[in-house]
Design brief:
By secondary structure, this protein is α/β, with parallel strands linked by helices. The protein contains 13 helices and 21 strands. The protein folds into 2 domains: 13-177 and 327-446, FAD/NAD(P)-binding domain, CATH 3.50.50; 181-318, no CATH class. The chain has helices at residues 26-37, 54-58, 77-87, 104-118, 165-169, 196-206, 213-216, 235-242, 282-306, 338-342, 399-405, 408-428, 437-446, and strands spanning 13-22, 42-45, 91-93, 100-102, 121-123, 126-134, 137-145, 148-159, 174-176, 189-192, 220-221, 232-233, 253-257, 266-272, 314-318, 328-330, 350-355, 358-360, 363-365, 372-376, 388-390. The strands form 6 sheets. Strands 1, 2, 5, 6, 7, 8 and 21 form a 7-stranded mixed beta sheet that branches. A 5-stranded antiparallel beta sheet has the order 12-13-14-10-15. The longest helix has 25 residues, at 282-306. It is globular, with a radius of gyration of 22 Å. The chain binds flavin-adenine dinucleotide.
Length: 452
């Protein structure tokens, strides 16, 4: 690739804050609310026009679809997301679990309220492009927006961008899953004009289970999941392939459905899973958006032809942006492994718990038995850079642990801990790497987090 040199320039300082959170998915939103509730002056920045990340921008509704009888769940701001959305009339019972499916549109308002009530300064339409460094310490970020290029200065910064963009640019050692092994990306879509009862009757007759995933998605279960109901749809797409509606070489169509309203809107259709795209490459993101939309239209045609209840369905909307699951992760003070998740790992520096739930990289394990692991603070603490913490799916860990830690609820666990740790470290005059873990755990418990 050719290079040019950018000229150095002087830019205005838009704001100075104590804790700056970049990215507002379940990780960043929980981080900002956690930090502000701990008394820190906090700013939350997102590149789009709403907070919520994948929930509101991609439209993923199922924040806790793993929850079954017997699940020992985390507690804290993630659970509050679900409860606050329910209180606002923005949920419906999720079809495969003991959880609520979020209405992504109303969740934009839930996020606004959480931010306002906690006293977080909101900043939307603002893309953080570069960390501001003083040696090995982060001091803020350079951001681009309609107001131009400006500096946001902060005593503590939390990278909740999903892709560890800031940590990477600050020089933190990171790993990126090889493209051929990256989890797929998805253009989600919704349809109007669905005959809800007719569709649900069809699903009931099909009685799909998680075992069906092993044929469509080549995913193994741990066995105990096999008989459980799953909103997984395969038959209409197989019939569409036989009828020539879906070309032979398009093997990425198939998947799950979410809420269906009484007025016939299927609000969350997750049915296009594209592999081989690098989520940190702008050309790949462009190609995936376009190919995803093409395949979503093929999926709709298949549904119209072969899914009873969808005969008169029509496209209502695509997700605001491509949904990406897996890209760059930091190397932290410690790394979480798949073995840790599967062996109920325990840590001195635990900042929360999460059930043994694995969804991805060829394995599905549902937490039906009460098993859980503790989440260590060390996976939030990047190597080499001070006063920077990482929250959400890009915390330190291997491929298999990513299939657990990427869950929205677990992103909220790491987010809340990052926010509280930033605030506690500020108050005590320690860096984020040196923060007293006992004080951090006390503050987290006070905020309602379950540590063991
Ligand atoms: C299609 C799909 C289906 C999924 N299904 C489920 C499911 O059913 N249940 C579940 O629990 N999980 C699911 N996941 C995974 C889960 O949604 C994500 O792992 C989770 O949302 C990650 O949270 P996060 O806070 O790390 O990042 P994200 O939710 O990705 O949020 C990152 C935020 O950072 C912002 N941002 C990024 N860069 C910048 C920047 N430079 N400046 C400013 N803002 C920036 C983005 O706009 C975004 O708001 C799914 C994911 C996808 C894509």
């Amino acid at each position: 690739m050719n290079h040019i040199s950018e000229a150095a320039r002087t830019i205005p300082v838009l704001l100075e804050t104590e804790v700056l959170v970049v990215g507002s998915g379940p990780g960043g939103l929980a981080a900002a609310v956690g930090a502000a509730r701990e008394g820190a002056r906090t700013t939350l920045v997102d590149r789009y026009g709403c907070f919520g990340g994948v929930i509101t921008q991609v439209g993923v509704e199922s924040i806790a679809w793993y929850r079954h009888e017997g699940t020992v769940d985390s507690e804290g701001i993630g659970i509050e997301f679900e409860q606050r959305a329910t209180a606002l009339g923005g949920t419906e019972p999720e079809s495969q679990s003991l959880s609520e499916a979020l209405d992504p549109e109303l969740f934009k308002c839930v996020a606004d309220e959480l931010v306002r009530e906690a006293g977080v300064e909101p900043l939307l339409h603002c893309l953080a492009v570069e960390p501001i460094m003083d040696g090995g310490t982060i001091k803020g970020v350079v951001a681009e927006s309609k107001s131009g290029r400006q500096a946001l200065l902060a005593a503590r910064v939390i990278d909740a961008t999903g892709d560890a963009d800031l940590a990477y640019r600050a020089g933190v050692p990171c790993r990126t899953t090889p493209v051929g092994e990256m989890m797929g990306v998805t253009v989600t879509f919704s349809c109007a004009g669905v005959d809800k009862q007719r569709f649900l009757d069809y699903v009931k007759a099909q009685a799909p289970t998680y075992k069906d995933w092993s044929t469509g998605w080549r995913i193994e279960t741990s066995g105990k999941e096999d008989h459980l109901f799953s909103p997984y749809l395969q038959e209409p797409f197989e019939l569409a392939r036989q009828a020539g509606i879906i070309p032979e070489d398009v093997t990425s169509i198939g998947g799950t459905w979410g809420r269906i309203s009484g007025s016939g809107e299927a609000t969350y259709l997750n049915m296009v899973y594209l592999r081989g795209y690098d989520c940190t490459d702008v050309r790949d993101l462009t190609r995936a958006e376009i190919e995803g939309r093409r395949q979503a239209r093929l999926a709709i045609e298949a549904l119209r032809r072969f899914a009873p209840g969808f005969e008169h369905a029509r496209l209502r909307a695509f997700g605001m942006t491509l949904g990406t699951r897996d890209s760059r992760k930091i190397f932290g003070r410690c790394d979480l492994t798949g073995d840790d998740v599967r062996s109920e790992a325990r840590y001195e520096d635990a900042i929360g718990i999460f059930p043994e739930f694995i969804d991805g990289h060829g394995l599905l394990v549902l937490p039906t038995t009460g098993r859980y692991f503790q989440v260590p603070y060390g996976i939030l603490v990047p190597q080499k850079v001070d006063n920077l913490l990482v929250a959400g799916r890009c915390v330190a860990g291997d491929k298999l642990s990513h299939a657990a830690i990427r869950s929205q609820m677990c992103c909220a666990v790491t987010g809340q801990a990052a926010g509280v740790a930033a605030a506690v470290s500020l108050r005590s005059g320690a860096t984020t790497a040196e923060v007293d873990v006992t004080r951090l755990q006390t503050a987290l418990r006070r905020q309602g987090v379950r540590l063991f």
